[in-house]
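Q: Got a minute? One more chain.
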Amino acid sequence: MWTHDPHSHAVVRHVWSSTHLARLPDQFLARVKCTKRAFSIWNKCQFGRLQKDIASIRTALAACQNGIIDDNSREQDKALRLQLDELLKHEELLWFQKSRVQWALEGDRCTKFFFISTLVRIRHNKIEKIHLDNG
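A: Always. Here it is, folded:
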């Protein structure tokens, strides 16, 4: 997920161009540790509110769809849908990466994690409703 975000490269560049790390005897290890800390902070700021952002856009989208339909509301609806799609892609990628890490750590055992991840995938793939342009 980080590699798809253009700001992640700036985090790495900033840490590795830092001059205070050049004075340390083991500068490579120090830079790796600083990069890890910087990514942890950056991740919380960039992606830490993913669930809250999705919920707020869904609320705004519902309010937009329940309001008066005009050209402005159609444009707003389209913009909100694009934002929601982007956030849902980030969420899907996050869960995909988490499941891969978990699988690599635990293997393919019949554990509670794998049953829950299957349920999450089934719920995610379920179509709840279809919205037509004519109402």
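A: The mean pLDDT is 77.
Q: Perfect, thanks.
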